[in-house]
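ENTRY TYPE: paired fold submission
RECORD: A
CONTENT: sequence, then structure tokens
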Amino acid sequence: MAKNRIKELRESSNPKITLKELSEKLKEKGLSFSDSQLYYYEQGKRSPRSKVADDFWQALSEIFDVSLAYVTGYDIDSQKLTKNLDSLNSQTKILSDEFKKDTGKAQNPTIKELKQYVNGDQERKINEDIKQLNNISYNLNEINRKKLIEYAKDLSKLQNFEKEKEKAEDKK
């Protein structure tokens, strides 16, 4: 289970929100949780009962104005993702350079050419990943499927952000 961000969000609010104040804000949304229950939730020692969990996490995401994935701890670590994307870009450049050297082509290879250059394992691995994601999704309960979808949406948004960032840097 991912570590939720209740405490982080409470303490980073301006002004900071106490557990008692958070309990009151939840009451305004029709949810009754004591400050001691909230303490156990933010420490990860307990979780809300399944029949109210969706409403609880949704209310927190609205109170703190963050995504459901973020408040539950299932979001993307953007610094780690940026590092991974940089690594992927470096590897792609190396592969592209190797392709040019091996084939004698002066221009950058197309994606199709790179796919053909890299052994056929890559496409097989992607298909296996897709099958694995389908199996994982199928075995999740509704709450966790929603979290998986939120995470995927966040990844997609971050990828689009990175593309826009690259375009802006290329224009400079």
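RECORD: B
CONTENT: sequence, then structure tokens
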Amino acid sequence: MGIAHPDKIWSLSEMLELEARAFLGAITRLRTLSVHTGRIERRDQLLGSEDKALVAQHLDWLIPEISKTSARSALICAERLRASFNPGTTDITYAHLAMQINDIESRFADHLDDIKFFVLNPSEVMLMQPVDALLSVPERAAVGFSLAFPNASFEIEEAAKCCALNRYTASVFHSMRALESGIRAMCAFLGIPDATKPAEKNWAIILRTLSEKIDERWPKNTRLPNTMGSKMESLYATLDAVKNPWRNATMHVETTYAPHEALHILRCVSMFLLDLASYCDEQGRGPTESPAMTSIDESPSSEASTHGG
């Protein structure tokens, strides 16, 4: 990962996920080297072969761990010290080694002054997973969803990360964008115009448009269980359930949302998208038309291949 520019706005997907073990390991290696050199009484003597091998080994462990923390200045210093142990280089004294180790420690400490640590509890860490893992439950895997719904997948991941970082209203914003992708896909699948246009971005209009199309293609009085019509009716009911916690007549983020509301909206949107993925991809294409859908773990209904005609 590159060094951040101070004037750049980062997305959550660009945040550095620092491995706690690597961070602790870097500190431990530095302290071990510092203690080892501090025990030497004659600092002006050259390092012996055994000590050179020991220090080189610790540096070989230390350098990857410093690299993971993006402490670039400390990393350069550590790599320079490691290079001084290569064959053909001039031997160094214990005093020089101690000075170099102190320099690495100092630069590492300076790096910590420039960054912030955000600690996540185990339940929050679960929200940082890729979308296929986020949407999977023991009784239903979601492997391949990210290929069939790439745009919605990105928004679901961002919404989950926002919840993990306590940015709940931002999470609802990303859930809204994911839901828009799903509604557009459902509209395309049913053969109706996009119901998420700005002028029509109203829950009543969206739900009425979908309901009328479903009733037109599969009249209620002829709709049998386990047919495409009944499945679309169930999918419509899932979408209708998303409206209740939204608290707005329009599909906009016009208010602030509490943690439980953001999580509930995220779950409802995810459930709708996962159900929709059984019938079409993000372009509204059925399984016979969409190569991406063959990767979804749950096999779509064969009726979906004909768009329920």
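NOTES ON RECORD B: The CA atoms of residues 148 and 281 lie 5 Å apart. DSSP finds twelve helices and no strands in the chain.
STATUS: closed
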